[in-house]
Amino acid sequence: MKKIIKYILIITSLLVFIGFSVFWIWSEQTYEASNNLSTFLGNDTMEYQQNWLVFEPENQQAKTGIILYPGAKVEPEAYSYYGDTLSKEGYLVIIPEVLFNFAIFDQNIAQEIMDYFPTVVQWIIGGHSLGGVAAASFAFNNPTKLDGLILLGSYPTDNNNFTGMDLPMLSIYAKNDGLTTPKEIQETQHLLSQHAELQEIQGGNHAQFGIYGEQKGDGNATISVEEQQRMITDTIKQWLDDANL
User: Fold this and answer.
1) Residues in Cβ contact with 189 at an 8 Å cutoff, skipping those fewer than 6 apart
2) Strand 47-49 vs strand 52-55: parallel, antiparallel, or unpaired?
3) CB 80, CB 46: distance < 8 Å
4) In this predicted structure, which of 9-23, 174-188, 196-210 has the lowest mean pLDDT?
5) Residue 27: alpha-carbon gap to chain centroid
6) Lower CB density within 10 Å: C or N end of the chain?
7) What is the pLDDT of residue 126?
8) Can you tell me the distance from the alpha carbon of 45 to that of 96, in angstroms, rounded to the nearest whole number?
9) Are 127 and 98 in contact (CB under 8 A)?
10) Runs of H (alpha helix) within 122-181
């Protein structure tokens, strides 16, 4: 009997190891930033701190920080346009590398970031796709630590119902998104706070919330990635201004 139990434990451990190895290899097959990313950023260089991609405003101390969780298996650099553009408006923007390239496994990294930048007095958290789900989860569990939530082609889960909360929220979604469809956005709108604003990007799709090329299952964009990125950034800036953030 003891030998049977021993063999079962060995086999179970082996299966767990194999399963984890397969998942790890799959999770490392990421969407990298497109080769033409530099054309969007000009001569600006990217700075890393603590494995986080950090964009700081020049010649001033940022009072508001924006933490942006990447989509599943998407490299942080793919969201550099937001960091570069918003930092020039006076915001500190941090896009972290996350565990196994899935922010859902690393939701509380936002707390580490906030602790690392103690001079920042206002914090916004956001994310793209599954990164937005993770950001929403952190926001739901830490509402007093945040001043806003930004969802990019994303929405909260049923467990994170913001109804009745005062947290300002911005949900940006794309008309041609084949992965987070406008229908799903509409069906989950009731989970947003009473201070939520929704904006649709006409002609945009899921992958163009970042700059990393095409994504399987997505719809076809009828606008360029540059135009979609600009429209999203302009919407974020306007929302931040309106909220006095």
Assistant:
1) 171, 196, 198
2) antiparallel
3) yes
4) 9-23
5) 17
6) N
7) 98
8) 16
9) no
10) 130-141
The two structure tokens encoding residue 180: 């987070």
Determine how β-strand 148-152 pairs with β-strand 92-96. unpaired
End-to-end CA distance of the chain: 66
Report how far residue 168's alpha carbon sits from residue 49's, in angstroms, rounded to the nearest whole number.
Answer: 28
Q: How far apart are CA 150 and CA 152, in angstroms?
A: 7
Q: How far is CA 48 from the centre of its chain?
A: 17
pTM greater than 0.70 (yes/no):
yes
* C-alpha to C-alpha distance for 193 and 189, rounded to whole angstroms: 9
DSSP 3-state assignment of 123? strand
Using CA atoms, how far apart are residues 83 and 98, in angstroms rounded to an integer?
Answer: 17
Nearest residue to 120 via CA among 140, 156, 144, 91: 91
Q: What is the pLDDT of residues 149-175, one digit of tens each?
A: 999 999 999 999 999 899 999 999 999
Distances (CA, A) of 73 to 25, 103, 129, 144, 217: 11, 9, 11, 29, 15
